[in-house]
Amino acid sequence: MSTDAEMMENVTYDEMTIGQSASITRTVTRDDIALFGVVSGDYNPAHFDDEYAAGSMFKQVIAHGMFGGGLVSAVLGTKLPGLGAIYMSQEFRFRRPVNLGDTITATVIVKEKRDEKKVVVFDCKVTNQDGKDVITGTAEILPAPGKIRRVKPTLPEVKVIR
User: Fold this and answer.
1) pLDDT for 5 beyond 90
2) Per DSSP, what are the bridge partners of residue 141?
C-alpha cells in the first residue's frame, strides 16, 4: 500500500456522538444532470429540455430530486458512518428545486443511537448556496461493527458526449 495514498476510515457506533455531522458539497452542472439521467434512466424533460422546462412551474431545467439524495447516500457511505455501513431506511421531503449552477451541501447529523441493535438515526438535509433546505429527511443506518480503513478508490474519468 502506497504511503501517500489517500485513506478513508469508518466511524463505529461506539465512536459516534449525538450531534456529530459530516457533509459533502457539490456545484450542479449539466453534465451532472446528464450522467444522473443516464445512470438512473430518468430522462424527464424537466431535467434536459430548456424549452419544456421554461413552461414548467420552475421555469428552468432542474436537477433530479434524487441527485441530492445521492449526495446524502455518499456522505453516509463514505464519511459518517462510512465504510461498511448498511442502509436500513431513508425518508426524504423535497422542499425546493435544485437549479443548474446551484451549490448544494448534503449533511447528515447523528440524531439517535439505538443500543439494542446498534442502529443510528440521522437527520439528513441538503441545502443550497443560500442556506435554504432543498431536501430534508431521516435515515436509519447500521454502522459496521468494527474499524475499516481502506485506500480511497480512484474513480474513472467520465466524458459526456452530446
Assistant:
1) no
2) 87, 120
pLDDT in tens, 80-118: 999 999 999 999 999 999 999 999 999 999 999 999 999
The answer to whether 47 and 37 have CB atoms below 8 angstroms apart is yes
pLDDT at 3: 58
pLDDT tens per residue across span 40-55? 999 999 999 999 999 9
What are phi and psi for residue 60, nearest 5 degrees? -160, 165
Q: How far apart are CA 72 and CA 44, in angstroms?
A: 22
User: For residue 132, with 0-12 CB atoms within 10 Å meaning exposed, 13-18 middle and 19 or more buried, which class applies?
Assistant: exposed
One-letter amino acid identity for 47? H
In angstroms, the CA 147 to CA 12 distance is 6
Confirm if 134 and 98 have CB atoms less than 8 A apart. yes
